[in-house]
Each structure stands twice: as C-alpha cells, then as structure tokens.
Amino acid sequence: MLKAIMGRLLGRPALPDKLSYEAAREALERHSARLHRDLASRPEAEPEILYYLAGDRDPDIRRRVAANPSTPAKADRRLADDPDGGVREELARKIGRLVPELDAAAHARIRDLAIQTLQCLARDQLPRVRAIIADAVKDSATAPRDLVRRLALDEDDAIACAVVEYSPLLNDADLKEIVDLARVSERLAAVARRRGLSAAVCDAVVARADIGAIAALIANETAQIGDQALEAILAKAAEIEAWHAPLAMRPNLSERVLRRIAGFVSSALIERMARRPGLDAATELALKAAARRRIETGGGGALPSESERRVQAALKAGRLDEAFIGAAAEAGERDVVAMALAALVRVPPAVATRILDSRSARAVTALVWKAGLAMRVSVEIQSFVLKLPARERLLARGGTDFPLGPEEMATHLELFGIGG
Fold this sequence. Notes:
Helix content: 55-70%
Shape: globular
Order of helices and strands: HHHHHHHHHHHHHHHHHHHHHHHHHHH
Largest sheet: none
Strand content: under 5%
C-alpha cells in the first residue's frame, strides 16, 4: 500500500504488493515501461502476461521475464532465440537450475519445451551462455545425453572440460572419441582426471603421449592404468620430471615397479616411497639404500636449469617484465616463458607449462592477464611459442585491450587450479 501511495505522490504509477489479474492487465494497458519492468519480475504474474512481456521491445523487461521462475515454458522457448545475449544468459541460469527437476515435470509438453530450450541454449553463439548450461549439466545423470555430448565436444575448452571431467553420461566410446579429437592438452587432462577411468580409455590417453595429460592420469588414483600403459609411461618417465612425483605416490604399485621408479627420481621422493604403508621389509630397505646412494652421489635433486637461472636473475634484478618475456617468446624459449609467467603469477612452473601445452589462446591470454602483463605479450606467445595459425589466435581489442572480460579469464584459470 505504501508503495502505491508513494507512487501517486510522486506522480508515478505503482503496482500493489499483492498483484491481481486485473491490476496486471491494467499495468499492461498503461504502456508504462516502469510498470512493465515491475510486472515482468513478479512471480505471481499470470503466465499469459509474462508470455506477452517476453516480446517487449525493452531488453531489460525481457531479461526480467527470462529470470522469472513463473514464466511459462512456451515463453522460455521463445526467449532462447532472443537477439539480446543478456536475455539468453538470464534464461540459461534459470533453466540450469531446473535441470535436476526435468524428469519430474508433471506434463510431458512442459518437459519437452524445457528440453528444447536447454538444447537451444547449449548451441548458443555466446560462450558464456553455453558455459552456464555446461555447469548445470556437468554432473547430471538425467540431462539429455546428446546435449552433454555436444558440450563435451564444444570448441571452447573451458566449456568442454567441465563436462568431460565430470559427466556420468559419457561412456568409454565417447571418451575415446574426445581423446582422439582433442587438440589441446587440457581437454586430454580433463579425461585423465575422471574418476574410475577404464583401462581402455587410459590406454587411449597414454597413446597421445601428452605430458600434462599423462601426469594427470598417473595422479588419478582411481584410473585403471593397465600393465602395458604403465610400461609405456615408465619407458619415458626418467626424462619427464612432471611424472616423477605422481608415479612415486601412486598406490598399488608392485615392488618391482617401485624399485624401477627409485632408479630415476630424487632422493626426497625415494624417502617418501620408503614410507609407503604395506611395503615388505626387503623393498623398504632397498628404497632407503637407494635414497642414501642418491644423496651421496649428489643426486638429491636436479640442479637449476639455465632457464631457471635466467628467470631467477631477472626476478632479483626487477627485470622480469614485458620486455623480458616478450624477447623470450620471440626467441621461442618455451621454458623461459613458462617459468617467468609462473613466477609472476606465483604458481608452480608445471601449471604454466600445462597452460602452454593446452595451446588454448584463451587460457594463455588469461595467464598473461593474471601476470599483470599487456595483451601484446599474449599475442607474442601465441605467435612465436605456440605457433598458432592466424585463425586460432586471440588478438587485442582496439589494438591494446584484452578481448576477454575478467570473469571469463578467471574461469579459464580455474580450470588449471589458479584461483583469484
């Protein structure tokens, strides 16, 4: 009541707190944008009124209708094709919340319309709309399987990886197809991190010989790595430090394999292996002896590489900046670029290496942004380190600005474990 009185005193109409059908119809007939916005947000508004407002010329009104939980399914389907991206984004958030209830919909027609809306949004041209839907269905057992497959093969790595890693609807054939088609390390790693990964899919991941994905696979304690795949990993592991720690800590390895791993990892890792529960006395003694020998021969840990020395020297001198990283990128010095970015973002070098290995222009741009560098550094890395074709590069907006918003870049970084 007070709201209506204040509206009259100020010369503006206002809707009553308790909205009747008659009051809603009157508000529509007044053609007041303010009343229409209020009406579009009211959960108690009649479905036919919300359907009418779904066609309003004002995108703000349509956004409110899209977010309204009382909007009828027919209007939602109409809004899924709305020309305004903000409308579709609001609709995606609402429809995403309804995913767990789709099977329980009282009427088949309503359920079918909701699924049609969901399918339409999963094909949306805006990545942020598809990302909302991917987040909603990634761990759902009741979402449409063809929709989940579509998102798992999405061109945007951030969208695809969320579904690939968690969806229970993807079977071994789907996962092997994703492994075969994956162009970036992170998509392979998303498969490798799945719980309960079968031996067949593990074999497919190992066959791709991707360092970051295999590191994720080894670290996945629930992955059923077969003897042949493990042998292929061990054959190369001595030269690939990123695999040493996950191999040393992987459970259920035979004593023979443990002794083999002890032949190339650091003394600190061997000591950790010797403390594993369930070791027989002979293996424990052999590991402890191997650790002592490694220390005595100076093999307690690898010496800093030339790349590490250069990055540390630049950091101490206050020269770890755009000029340093840009020059390293133009020279194609991948390790220097990865270590420099890692130092600026304060993450392990392996994380920055994983991002470079992903060959994702968006992820690299997000890392450069997080490091506090200019967009031109990302372009240099894409061109000279990743050697991406021109059509795959992400260029600056307006010549200097980052082409992605902070929220989207933060999302890409979260996929690699880099938080705010």
